[in-house]
Amino acid sequence: MLDFTGDIEAILPEVVALRHDLHAHPELAYCEERTSGKVLEQLRSLAGLEIQDGLAGGTGIVATLNGDKPGPCVLLRADMDALPIEEDSALPYKSQHAGKMHACGHDGHTSMLIGAARVLTRCADRLPGKVKFCFQPAEEDGAGGERMVADGVLENPRVDAAFALHGWPDIPVGAIATRPGPMLAATAPFDITITARGGHAAYPHRTPDAIVAAAQFITNIQAIRARFVDPFDPVVISICMVEAGYTYNVLPQRCALKGTVRALRPEVHARARALVGEFLRATAASFEVEAELAYGTCYPALTNDAACAALVADVGRELLGAERVSMDYPPGLGGEDFAYFAERVPAAMFQLGLKRPSAADVAGLHNPRFDFNDAALPHGIGMLCGIAQRYLEHAGAVAPTR
Ligand SMILES: [Zn+2]
Ligand SMILES: [Zn+2]
Questions:
Q1: Which pLDDT score, from 0 to 100, does residue 116 have?
Q2: What global pTM score does this model have?
Q3: Cα of 164 to ligand 1 centre, how many Å?
Q4: What is the pLDDT of residue 400?
Q5: Ligand 2 geometric centre to CA of 333 (Å)
Q6: DSSP state, 298?
Q7: C-alpha to C-alpha distance for 81 and 87, rounded to whole angstroms
């Protein structure tokens, strides 16, 4: 493998500065105008890239590097969006946008992919094939990955394999983890509205009660996981918002719920989604209330191609050491719209360690105190460069396994 260490060290201060700048200016899904502008500015300063911007509703970008020798095409993907969370920190580069922050580390992902583009454009003469650097909007909400794919980022030239990483606070800096097969969940956010006539709290027999119906429904659906799905098939149904009522003595006319259904296997996900509807209908009927259920955008499950995951692990063992690579990290029920890429081409995602050696206070993803660990940036850039190079050189050996 090419030695990227010197090139990465040379650009690292600028990558860190970019990361801090993006952290200070977080933008939500499909509003990543400033972020996308920064990415474009950086990409345009590099020689040899064919850049397409304005994708996925406006902020998506893909830049293609044509290596000097013919060969396959590998795509590296980063996400750019932030979350609607008020940052709780004293960092000098704390979010300047009230109610928004990079609490999932996409500032780190974007900066590392810029770093990889800077390093790989310098060695295009030694790359047998093409590398696409893909910057997508709206990973957290709105399926930006799906729109990037719909806008053709996997075509012209056709992508043979795709790779992505996610910073992971549970894994030490300098380590990575991945796994072949199912890695992250299919997700389905839902809104439920239960309506009743409403009335006096002292006369509950004269009006159906939306709150009691909602409470019963929330309790009843726990049985879906416990009694309708194989205990060895992961599934989770969480109600994350309950909103109803005005005061002490009024039975309200409405109770609203928000929640999510998640599972690793598509069949289990479909069954659990359908059961939520059936339980809602049955509970509403028994309490004589009306109920409506609407599902939002469902992300597919992320399934890693076995050969692509093995390639990630090989590169990790070479760059980080065998003891710092886990190939059987447990799957989780988080969602990830890199799944839209992985549905269409052989792909693998890996977790990049962010845990500080001494940190007792590591804030998790989506926490108001989360901050991407800059010490992980060179490892992430090295992994992205190594994966791209290794894939292009060994593509013949990486036969798609599904
Ligand atoms: Zn997230
Ligand atoms: Zn994320």
A1: 98
A2: 0.91
A3: 14
A4: 47
A5: 13
A6: P
A7: 15
Query: With the C-alpha atoms ordered 28, 31, 34, 35, is the resulting torsion angle positive or negative?
Result: positive
CATH 3.40.630.10 maps onto the chain at: 5-184+301-397
Rounded CA separation 155/132 (Å): 10
Q: How far is the CA of 297 from the centre of ligand 1 (A)?
A: 15
Q: Contacts for 397-400 with beta carbons within 8 Å, 24 or more apart?
A: 398/161, 398/307, 398/308, 398/311, 398/346, 399/307, 400/305, 400/307, 400/346
Q: Are strands 49-55 and 60-66 parallel, antiparallel or unpaired?
A: antiparallel
What is the Å distance from ligand 2's center to 207 Cα? 45
CA distance linking residue 314 with residue 80, whole number of Å? 27
Write down how long the chain is: 402
Starting from the CA of residue 351, give the closest ligand: 2
**Domain spanning 186-295, CATH class:** alpha beta
Measure 104 CA to ligand 2 centroid, in angstroms.
Answer: 5
pLDDT band at 287 (very low <50, low <70, confident <90, very high): very high
Residue found by looking up tokens 């790359």 in the block: 127
Give the residue-averaged pLDDT of 9-15. Answer: 98
Q: Which CATH class is domain 5-184+301-397?
A: alpha beta
Among residues 128, 139, 136, 133, the alpha carbon closest in space to that of 116 is found at: 133
Q: What are phi and psi of 54, to 5 degrees?
A: 75, 20
User: What are 92-127's pLDDT values in tens digits?
Assistant: 999 999 999 999 999 999 999 999 999 999 999 999
CATH 3.30.70.360, the chain: domain bounds: 186-295
Under 8 Å between Cβ of 8 and 356: no
* Residues 34-43: tens digit of each pLDDT: 999 999 999 9
Q: How confident is the model at residue 399 (pLDDT cuts 50, 70, 90)?
A: very low
CA of 141 to the centre of ligand 1 (A): 9
